[in-house]
């Protein structure tokens, strides 16, 4: 058996050969992921600054607004996954691109708080109907597990490329923390809309035999299927916990820096974002090959422990010294580079092909962390200040405990698949 495994491993194509084997549509989807996330990172990470400076909202109010937007993603994502199974990915992607453009343009043109909140709600729709169907479309086009995992790694890598250069371009053109940047973000969805309209065929891309073998999964059926899959639920809970911790970095950390020093906050936030993305890019370049021999549960456990350490370091920094924050950000980024892509890969590999639509909808529950995080963090920030990072450290340790308890079941499930 070891000889057979060694022969199979040696026969596997290399990284670049595998990338070349991707269909042109997958390459296009990865490119448009880079485009829309590039403009996203010019604006969205500074939304807490805009809501504080322009509308004078408290951390709790900002958390409620961002939580409401993310809750829209959860609810509509559940239905979006089922609709994309019934009607095809193309219809949902077109609707998602249209809502994205509308939501960001609304934010750019809003003259009052009410219209600004409406824009946030519309963006909640766009997140649910662009990101998951895009990933599902790539999975449809890449049948084998190895290529799907590589596509998810490349997608995450490109998102971090966007996170490096988006804020930098915003600084160069004076767009950082300006409402007009939302207009650019909205317009960036139009080329993607045109590509989907012209080059993604209508209907399902799966073969007729596979597509017709399973009836459409209703919401109550989906809940029953997922509720009985304890292993997938454990992985989903880990993803939710990871989302809660990560959204504190995007939504709560900027507010904490504003409390420390309002004048230095925007510059420091930009430097932290760029450092985070650069560090993740650097680590991912080397980690993918190094981690290939380590099982998925062990990778996730390692990433969770580093996440917990980074939160304790965030708690310990009480000044706006740039080098301190960038050092801690480097630790956080290492945990992110290990944890987040491998959680996505785990959820993808645990989902059985015959219920892909149901599991696609259920995977949107991971955004509950994104939904609850800003509100929980806003309350904790208002009540405890830096103590909010103690809470996120404990959540990271809960993630580690959960993946450790279910590690044997996960490994057995992956081997059986």
What's the short version?
With 417 residues, the chain is mainly α. It is built from 20 helices and no strands.
Give a description of the structure.
The protein has 417 residues and is mainly alpha-helical. Helices cover 83% and strands 0% of the residues. It contains 20 helices and no strands. It is globular and about 55 Å long. 51% of the residues are buried.
List the helices and strands and how they pair.
Elements: H1 2-11, H2 15-20, H3 24-43, H4 47-53, H5 59-87, H6 89-109, H7 113-141, H8 145-172, H9 181-187, H10 189-199, H11 208-212, H12 219-228, H13 230-260, H14 262-290, H15 296-316, H16 322-350, H17 356-363, H18 368-384, H19 388-405, H20 407-416
Helix pairs in contact: 3-8, 3-9, 3-10, 4-13, 5-6, 5-7, 5-17, 5-18, 6-7, 6-9, 6-10, 8-14, 8-16, 12-17, 13-14, 13-16, 13-18, 13-19, 14-16, 15-16, 15-19
Low-confidence stretches: 1-11
- Give the N-terminus to C-terminus distance in angstroms: 18 Å
Report mean pLDDT, rounded to a whole number.
Answer: 82
How large is the share of residues in beta strands? under 5%
Query: Major beta sheet, specifics?
Result: none
User: Count of DSSP E strands?
Assistant: 0
| DSSP helix fraction | over 70%
The ordered H/E elements are HHHHHHHHHHHHHHHHHHHH
What is the count of DSSP helices, taking H or I runs of 4+ residues? 20
Radius of gyration computed on alpha carbons: 21 Å
Categorize the overall geometry. globular
Structural class of the secondary structure composition?
mainly alpha
Keywords:
mainly alpha, 417 residues, 83% helix
């Amino acid at each position: 058996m070891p000889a057979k495994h060694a022969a199979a491993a040696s026969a596997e194509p290399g990284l670049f050969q595998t990338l070349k084997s991707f269909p042109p549509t997958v390459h296009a989807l990865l490119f448009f992921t880079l485009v829309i996330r590039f403009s996203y990172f010019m604006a969205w990470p500074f939304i807490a600054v805009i809501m504080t400076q322009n509308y004078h909202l408290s951390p709790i109010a900002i958390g409620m607004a961002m939580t409401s937007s993310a809750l829209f993603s959860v609810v509509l994502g559940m239905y979006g996954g089922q609709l994309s199974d019934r009607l095809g990915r193309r219809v949902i992607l077109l609707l998602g691109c249209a809502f994205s453009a509308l939501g960001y343009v609304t934010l750019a043109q809003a003259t009052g708080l009410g219209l600004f909140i409406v824009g946030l709600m519309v963006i909640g729709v766009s997140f649910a109907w662009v990101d998951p169907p895009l990933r599902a479309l790539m999975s449809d086009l890449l049948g084998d597990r190895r290529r799907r995992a590589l596509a998810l790694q490349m997608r995450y890598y490109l998102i971090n490329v966007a996170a490096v250069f988006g804020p930098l371009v915003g600084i160069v053109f004076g767009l950082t923390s300006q409402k007009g940047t939302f207009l650019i973000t909205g317009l960036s969805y139009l080329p993607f809309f045109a590509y989907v309209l012209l080059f993604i065929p209508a209907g399902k891309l799966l073969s007729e035999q596979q597509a017709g073998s399973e009836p459409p999964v209703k919401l109550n059926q989906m809940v029953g299927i997922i509720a009985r899959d304890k292993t997938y639920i454990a992985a989903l809970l880990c993803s939710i916990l990871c989302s809660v911790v990560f959204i504190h970095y995007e939504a709560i950390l900027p507010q904490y820096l504003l409390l420390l020093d309002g004048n230095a906050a925007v510059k420091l936030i930009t430097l932290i974002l760029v450092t985070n993305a650069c560090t993740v890019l650097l680590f991912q370049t080397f980690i993918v090959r190094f981690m290939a021999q380590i099982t998925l549960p062990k990778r996730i456990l390692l990433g969770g422990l580093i996440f917990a350490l980074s939160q304790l370091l965030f708690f310990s920094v009480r000044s706006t010294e740039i080098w301190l924050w960038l050092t801690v950000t480097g630790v956080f980024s290492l945990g992110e580079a290990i944890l987040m892509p491998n959680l996505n890969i785990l959820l993808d590999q645990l989902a059985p092909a015959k219920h892909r639509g149901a599991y696609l909808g259920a995977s949107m529950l991971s955004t509950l962390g994104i939904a609850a995080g800003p509100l929980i963090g806003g309350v904790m920030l208002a009540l405890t200040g830096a103590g909010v990072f103690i809470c996120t450290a404990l959540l990271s340790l809960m993630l580690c405990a959960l993946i450790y308890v279910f590690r044997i079941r996960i490994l057995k499930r992956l081997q059986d698949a």
